[in-house]
Design brief:
- This protein is of the alpha+beta class.
- The protein has one domain: Nuclear Transport Factor 2, Chain: A (Roll).
- It is built from 2 helices and 5 strands, in the order H-E-H-E-E-E-E.
- The protein has a 5-stranded antiparallel beta sheet, with helices on one face.
- The longest helix is centred in the middle third of the chain and has 18 residues.
- The relative contact order is 0.19.
- Keywords: Protease inhibitor, Signal, Thiol protease inhibitor.
- It comes from Cajanus cajan.
Length: 116
């Protein structure tokens, strides 16, 4: 478990550098019923299902944080989700959103199980 956490921290640090040298401004809590949170959560589950072949269904968003990225690089959403129909019930996901674009241009950064 400790090794997985260290790997995740490393990947997140490297991915922050990989996004055009984007500087992180820090995560802040956001309401789980925020429209962008709901959009990001539904998108994350759909994309995960496409990539994995699973048939998860979003039950609810448990915790939501967002982090504006330096410049016009978007807003990173960090969500803890409760799902049904999977091997696990809880997942953490990171979704990048550019809300000022017409399609909101969402990108799934990661999606992995967590122990609740």
């Amino acid at each position: 478990m400790k090794v997985e956490c260290l790997i995740l921290v490393f990947v997140l640090l490297v991915s922050g550098v990989a996004i055009k040298g984007v500087r992180s401004l820090g995560f802040s809590p956001i309401g789980v019923n925020n429209p962008y949170v709901r959009e990001a959560a539904n998108f994350a589950v759909r994309e995960h299902n496409k990539q994995s072949g699973e048939k998860l269904k979003l039950k609810k968003v448990i915790v939501a944080d967002n982090e504006p990225l330096d410049g016009n690089n978007g807003i990173m959403y960090r969500l803890t989700l409760e799902t049904t129909h999977g091997s696990y019930n809880h997942y953490q996901t990171f979704v990048l959103i550019k809300p000022w674009l017409p399609s909101h241009k969402l990108k799934l950064q990661s999606f992995y199980p967590v122990h609740a």
